[in-house]
Design brief:
- With 64 residues, this protein is mainly alpha-helical.
- It is 52% helix and 9% strand.
- Helix 2 links the parallel strand 1 and strand 2.
- The two termini are 25 Å apart.
- 6% of the residues are buried.
């Protein structure tokens, strides 16, 4: 996840990482490393927020 996020950021893409879609073998590592490091170059959002935003785009309106 981190490598993909860094690559996309390097090419100028705005990134969103869905927190519930990331995984690490250790819960402590999962809560600290991948999401925290991604938050420096991407928006880390919960799946409900992402789905609401995509639904708003599909309906032709912007969701904050």
């Amino acid at each position: 996840m981190r490598a993909s996020t860094v690559d996309a950021y390097s090419y100028g893409f705005h990134n969103v990482v869905v927190e519930e879609c990331t995984y690490d073998r250790s819960l402590i590592t999962h809560k600290s490393q991948p999401v925290r490091s991604a938050s420096q170059i991407a928006d880390v959002m919960h799946i409900e927020e992402v789905l609401a935003h995509l639904d708003g785009l599909a309906r032709g309106r912007k969701v904050a």
